[in-house]
């Protein structure tokens, strides 16, 4: 038996470029609306909401990115084991959503969920920055 599979996913063509050009919540929403499968867009919306001191909205955006990402890593062969490397840039939308979900959960007093997310990021992407995104 070899090393566990390293999962890599892709973001929709053009979505990361559009996201890089977006500024402000309306433009971020436009990217998510055009490419709802873009995990990085949901993570960016979550980060934006968190920065605007809207932890419940951040939680919702991050949860969308997390669940869509979980579906995506499963479609790519993840079966509960294996890495989702931070080094592969398109994986970062999922990992950032997962880490952000933990931050937002902590902000709304959901300590168990916050710890579960923190542990899951560490398990999936030991190469992720300490902040998880």
**Beta content:** under 5%
**Uncertain runs with pLDDT below 50, 5 residues or more?**
none
Structural class: mainly alpha
What is the architecture of the domain at 38-124 at the second tier of CATH? Alpha Horseshoe
> Given the C-alpha coordinates, what overall shape results?
globular
Which CATH top level class of the domain at 38-124 fits?
A: Mainly Alpha
Radius of gyration (Å)? 14 Å
The percent range for helix content is 55-70%
Tell me what the structure shows.
- The protein is mainly alpha-helical and 133 residues long.
- The protein has a domain of 87 residues: Serine Threonine Protein Phosphatase 5, Tetratricopeptide repeat (Alpha Horseshoe), CATH 1.25.40.
- Helix content is 61%, strand content 0%.
- The protein starts with 14 loop residues before the first helix and ends in a 9-residue tail after the last helix.
Short description:
The chain has six helices and no strands.
Q: Which key phrases capture this entry?
A:
Serine Threonine Protein Phosphatase 5, Tetratricopeptide repeat; mainly alpha; globular; 6 helices
Which secondary structure elements does this structure contain, and how are they paired or packed?
Elements: H1 15-21, H2 25-34, H3 39-51, H4 55-75, H5 92-107, H6 111-124
Helix pairs in contact: 2-3, 3-4, 3-5, 4-5, 5-6
């Amino acid at each position: 038996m070899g090393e566990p599979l390293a999962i890599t996913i892709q973001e929709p063509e053009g979505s990361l470029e559009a996201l890089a050009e977006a500024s402000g919540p309306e433009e971020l929403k436009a990217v998510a609306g055009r490419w709802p499968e873009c995990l990085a867009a949901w993570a960016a919306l979550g980060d934006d909401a968190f920065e605007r001191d809207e932890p419940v909205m951040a939680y919702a955006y991050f949860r969308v990115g997390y669940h869509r990402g979980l579906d995506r890593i499963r479609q790519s062969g993840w079966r509960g084991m294996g890495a989702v490397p931070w080094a592969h840039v398109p994986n970062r939308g999922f990992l950032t959503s997962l880490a952000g979900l933990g931050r937002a959960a902590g902000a709304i007093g959901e300590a168990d969920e916050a710890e579960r997310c923190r542990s899951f990021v560490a398990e999936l992407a030991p190469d992720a920055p300490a902040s998880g995104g």
